[in-house]
Model the fold of this input.
Amino acid sequence: MLEKIFKLSAQKTTVRTEILAGITTFMTMSYILAVNPSILSETGMDKNALFTATALSAIAGTLVMSFIANYPFALAPGMGLNAFFTYTVVIGMGYTWQFALTAVFLEGIIFLILTAFNIRELIVNSIPLNVKHSISAGIGLFIAFIGLQKAGIIVNNEATLVSLGNMGSNSVLVAVFGLIVCGVLLAKNVRGALLIGIFSSTVIALLLGVTSLPTTSVVSIPPSIEPIFWKFDFSHIFSLDMLFILFTFLFVDMFDTVGTLIGVADKADMLNEKHELPRVKHALFADAVGTTLGAVFGTSTVSTYVESASGVAAGGRTGLTSFTVVIMFAISLFFAPLFIMIPASATAPVLVLVGLFMMSPIKKIDFNDFTEAIPAFLTIVIMPLTYSIAEGIIFGMLSYVILKLLTGKHKQLSLIMYVIAVLFILKFFM
Done:
């Protein structure tokens, strides 16, 4: 049955590989179950209800990705967008969290419409080939940077922005141990190397006191979402503030998702002979459905997670990988203390190594043509330095259009690219 649904043999994969890949993806993104409620609860939303809403929205979006698109990508409330929801819309602008949820709901509806009319698909396919390759490499540096931060190997520094952390701290030791374990197992071609690395690092973290076993029962009934379910406020939907908020939500989520889909798919050789992602429309429906239902459940914008690259690196190629993530999120609803026990330093090594895996498409970039090389380089370097996939794409695409125009190569530009460039410029002013 699984073969018929997910077409495993066509993708040269197995049930075992897909399940291991799904568990690996979940382990590297499960932090969202703790982090998202923590951020959104600062608006006054019920923290326990947010835990359930986070898991349910991840399940909804990833189910669509699994069965409709048949891709190994997982979705959940996006980092960055939840911060914008809390610190800009609610705390900064003074609106209620109900108003912010309304903006997220409207964003989801707009995404459904844009996807249905193939507008988002046109945007994805309009991205130049070399920029597509650079997106994968840029995500590689970005996700490795995230991993190094989570491990405490890279820390904030006022003088130089970033610097080396305390290499003798227990959390860093856990991460370094995980790097060594994963590295050795990968070198020996051991299946499930990344997952073994996470589990072994968690054991070391327990021994060093970085984390601890749950003091309460590991089995619990999921908290009710009633306090935040369907809590919308449509009283200010025609205001300029709503226009600004909607534009920001749409813009960031669109290009974060597009960047993740292209980058991870390029690494996994999923792009076709036209360098386009087959069934991209189906994949884009996933975050549109996830965002719409997520707002109904009571959480911020749902997007495709860059941590999906860890599952792809572990061999995941079909929707069975993402369906495994769905199962893990469903289980987490009842075993939250157990999953929250896994420290960031135990999953950080996987993110660092996935960053390595994501770098390989850089070999396909044409560095001899500077109108191709400069946009590609800017895409790669801006992503980790701005902590944003979307900003990397913006710099890459804008520089591509400008350089082609000023060097007489405007025939290489499509109408869609001109439109996108104008939108990017408007984004900077807004």
In short: The first helix runs from residue 2 to 6. The longest strand covers residues 154-157. The mean pLDDT is 89.
